[in-house]
Design a protein that fits this description.
Chain A: Its main location: membrane. The complex is a heterodimer of chains A (379) and B (510). With 379 residues, chain A is mostly helical. Chain A contains 16 helices and two strands. The chains are: A mainly alpha (379), B alpha/beta (510).
Chain lengths: 379, 510
């Protein structure tokens, strides 16, 4: 028999609790900063200013956030089906191959607005295909998708190294990457959009139109999950596979379809660094975004409205963290990873740590503001 | 010493805005069997959870043997001599009886000593109360009746003087229940106090000395059992007069709607759960399947409704076979007019995290009236849900409310409304009133009878013998996967009970 939890009002559930989690994460991170002999408050100021203090900073923050929106959505869609897709990293990485094929073939002849849609399809297709095998194994053989998707990350990494070193690398080049894309393979930057708000952005800032694609995808994911028959089936299976069986929803089909969508979303992440910033396909361009996506989805409660701000928060940590490492020599790149880890720990893994306390406080102050949550029938 | 084993004074407990217990006063005299009845959600379980230390009352006092006692945890309750036998057993399946009995009271690091002590103690309890059970048997190999005995032994081993039993007969055959009652009588004779929580009025009348009735969080009455009647108790529970017997006319059976032939089903471990079962159901009749839980009824029901693989046999729906390979599409069967109210509404029949309206289309979600292309037609779904809410008096009448927040009876009405309103030719219903309050039971029974009178075929599976007897036109009894007899609804409970316990027909007649 569990303690019956009072249900919190939505603003506390979606606003207050994540905020408290975040503050605790930063407090602990502050202790770490103190430990290496730096002033935590100054560190916080540098972090936030680095991320949001200038047009350039914002452009970088949103650029990183774009990656995390895609991967966060990918993880969230799978979550709704009760699947834990740890393979966003590999799916995104492999998607780079699809983009390379399209762009290398057409960037000299076609304009970007023709190449881009083809690249979107290619990235989604390659990401989806990379998720298909684990999905099939889960649906047909019961091989746990967590294990298989992790393994597929390693396979993806090896495949990409092989492809970049042995196949895609231009003859005579020393770097394991494709040739630079021509104009047709380069996405327009969004710096001008920030400039509209009076911010100064250098043309080198990587924010590009894949950010808008990410926002569009966030909207489409919302439509998919809450407004379509497929989304209804995904959620039914995610909550109860038995209820899904009873309702005539095919387990095999729903697992595979969901993972294809998840993989496609993860795959689209590759567009941002490849076509938006680097203009080639380098090694390791995914850079852990697939894993950050898990934290983003957790923090965003698998809801697009939560995922976008969570992705921006992690974008801030990436961008502000880089500034911090630059400004404070005692704080290395690894320290930033520790801070990110703390945020993931408190916002993701320990998400419910403060919930009972807060619910208790709410219940004692205003019993009317809280309804009762599910208590089964044993009330 | 005080006369009352337990005295509760002014107990209040709220969960958020819901007052589960208000100003409860209760006196339970020592050495008696005291029944507590009430509908689901009346607050019985909450009250007992307070007494056993799972919850703490917001205000009020508990006196045990006249002494005010603070019970903050189950350990406090045990120390005060209170033991509890839960509805769902709290036993470790792959431990032996002895190991389960000493669990939580192991004593020192090495078990040898406490095991030896427990063994001799069990022998004493066995002699004193007739609680025979092999101390070295594994729990998973024991029938539920014996598992329950282990739960009682656990409580007594810890020195319980006051024993609380929460719905103890739900999983027992009538014979096992009788045996349990004899044990309780013996406990009473030895001066122990027994608190029996149940919704079965018959049991209250049969065994208790006093009975307290709860309704909507309050204690509405306490009666001496000898001075009250079933009708009075039912009225106290519900707050209005209740029809306990279902009124129904003669069945007018028509053509065969569902024909089951030589059906054999195995479970995932390869154990035969349904063994060569054959029967027909005709239009306009209710066929009840009686049996103690776990004798293959659930598997039979799942196989017939196409969601479980059958090893052999055929099931014909309106003369056309149903795919029994386990690959059947339940959606297609629904199109053919086979509706199914599953036994487990929490995990199968409903998605508790969904809105009421979302659940009102579960399984019918690909019907064109609920869709606009690939999109859900939310407007139509809401309207449809609202209609069903009105027709079935589902409360609260809010299709956007999360299903988990409805009471058991209303959840069941959501499922029934969904299945019945699709106007199926055959309705398979499992445990239609499990965990459902008396008022809703009446409503559900009337609906099922109405289905029958409209010429539908109804297959009813229930562990409630009363329900089977009052609704069915024919009763099949299942034991160990086989249909061991077919009887009419007028058959005595004793005879059905013997069949359910696997006693052959000839012996039963003797």
């Amino acid at each position: 028999m569990s303690t019956p939890y009072a249900k919190l009002p939505a603003w506390a559930d979606y606003g207050l609790i994540p905020l408290i989690n975040l503050l605790v994460a930063f407090a602990v991170a502050g202790l770490v900063v103190l430990l290496v002999g730096e002033n935590p408050l100054r560190a916080a100021v540098i972090l936030v200013e680095g991320a949001f203090g200038s047009g350039q900073g914002i452009a970088y923050t949103l650029y990183y956030a774009t990656n995390f929106i895609f991967t966060g959505l990918a993880v969230a869609v799978a979550f709704h089906c009760g699947l834990f897709n740890i393979g966003g990293e590999g799916q995104a990485y492999i998607a780079g191959l699809g983009i390379a094929i399209v762009v290398l073939a057409f960037d000299s002849t076609l304009p970007w607005w023709v190449v881009f849609p083809m690249a979107i399809i290619a990235s989604a297709l390659f990401g989806a295909l990379w998720a298909l095998i684990p999905a099939y194994l889960q649906a047909k053989r019961g091989s746990h998708i967590v294990i298989t998707t992790i393994m597929f990350n390693f396979i993806a990494a090896s495949v990409m190294v092989y492809m970049l070193v042995n196949v895609l690398k231009p003859a005579g080049s020393m770097a394991p990457q494709t040739r630079q894309f021509l104009e047709g393979g380069q996405l327009p930057k969004l710096g001008w959009l920030l400039a509209e708000f009076g911010l100064k952005v250098r043309p080198s800032a990587p924010l590009n139109i894949s950010f808008l694609l990410a926002l569009a995808m966030a909207f489409l994911v919302w439509v998919l999950i809450w407004r379509t028959k497929l989304g209804y089936e995904i959620r039914t299976y995610g909550f109860s596979s038995k209820a899904a069986r009873y309702a005539g929803i095919s387990e095999t089909r729903i697992i595979i379809v969901t993972m294809l969508i998840s993989g496609a979303l993860a795959g689209m992440m590759a567009l941002n660094p490849i076509m938006g910033d680097q203009h080639n396909v380098p090694l390791d361009f995914a850079g852990g975004a697939g894993f950050v996506g898990i934290a983003v989805a957790l923090m965003g409660r698998s809801h697009p409205v939560g995922i976008v701000p969570a992705a921006i928060l992690f974008g801030m940590l990436y961008q502000g963290g880089a500034e911090l490492a630059f400004e404070m020599p005692n704080i290395s790149r690894d320290m930033i990873v520790i801070i990110q880890g703390l945020v993931i720990l408190f916002a993701g893994a320990l998400e419910n740590m403060f919930r009972p306390t807060i619910q208790g406080i709410f219940a004692s102050f205003s019993p009317r503001s809280v309804g009762i949550a599910a208590k089964g029938e044993r009330a | 010493m005080a006369e009352n084993a337990i005295e509760l004074i002014g107990i209040n407990k709220s969960f958020g805005a819901v007052r589960a217990n208000r100003d409860i006063a209760l006196e339970i005299p020592r050495g008696t069997i005291h029944g507590i009845i009430g509908e689901n959600g009346a607050g019985k379980s909450t009250l007992m959870s307070i007494l056993y230390g799972f919850y703490q009352a917001d205000s009020g006092e508990i006196r045990v043997n006249g002494k005010p006692t603070a019970i903050k945890t189950p350990n406090d309750a045990i120390a005060a001599g209170i033991g509890m036998v839960h509805q769902h057993f709290m036993l470790v399946e792959n431990f032996s009886v002895l190991e389960n009995v000493i669990l939580g009271a192991e004593g020192e690091a090495l078990l040898t000593k406490s095991i030896a002590k427990a063994r001799s103690e069990l022998r004493r309890l066995e002699k004193e109360y007739g609680l025979e059970v092999d101390p070295d048997a594994l729990i998973e190999e024991l029938p539920v009746g014996l598992q329950q005995r282990v739960e009682i032994l656990k409580a007594l081993y810890r020195g319980a003087e006051i024993l609380i039993l929460d719905e103890p007969t739900g999983v027992l055959t009538p014979a096992e229940a009788d045996h349990l009652f004899r044990i309780l009588e013996q406990l009473k004779e030895q001066g122990k106090t027994v608190v029996l929580i149940t919704h079965k009025l018959r049991e209250i009348m049969a065994i208790t000395d006093n009975v307290s009735v709860m309704r909507q969080g309050t204690m509405v009455a306490t009666r001496k059992t000898s001075e009250t009647t079933v009708e009075e108790l039912a009225e106290l529970m519900v707050g209005r007069r209740v029809l306990l017997r279902v009124e129904k006319g003669e069945a007018k059976p028509g053509a065969v709607k569902l024909a089951v032939k030589n059906l054999t089903v195995k479970d995932s471990r390869g154990v035969t759960m349904v063994d060569d079962v054959s029967f027909d159901i005709r239009a306009g009749e209710i066929v009840g399947i009686a049996g103690v839980a776990g004798n293959g009824q659930s598997e039979l029901m799942e196989a017939v409704s196409g969601i479980r693989k059958a090893v052999s046999g055929t099931v014909m729906l309106d003369g056309t076979p149903i795919d029994l390979t386990g690959q059947a599409d339940p959606g297609e069967l629904r199109d053919r007019g086979l509706a199914h109210v599953p036994e487990d509404r929490h995990h199968v029949g409903l998605v508790l995290a969904f809105d009421e309206s979302e659940n009102s289309i579960l399984g019918y979600h690909d019907k064109p009236q609920y869709l606009k292309g690939p999109f859900l037609n939310l407007e139509a779904i809401q309207k449809d849900a609202q209609d069903k809410i009105e027709k079935y008096d589902i409360r609260p009448a809010n299709p956007r409310l999360k299903t988990a927040n409805f009471s058991g009876g209303n959840q069941q009405k959501i499922v029934l409304a969904r299945e019945i309103e699709q106007d199926p030719g055959v309705l398979i219903v499992g445990q239609p009133t499990r965990g459902v309050d008396v008022g809703a039971i009446e409503f559900i029974h009337k609906r099922l009878i109405a289905m029958r009178d409209q010429g539908k075929a109804v297959l009813l599976i229930s562990v409630e013998l009363d329900e089977i007897r009052s609704l069915s036109d024919r009763i099949l009894v299942m034991f160990a996967g086989r249909v061991v007899g077919e009887r009419g609804p007028e058959t005595s409970e004793g005879e059905l009970g013997l069949l359910m316990a696997g006693v052959e027909h000839k012996e039963a007649a003797e």
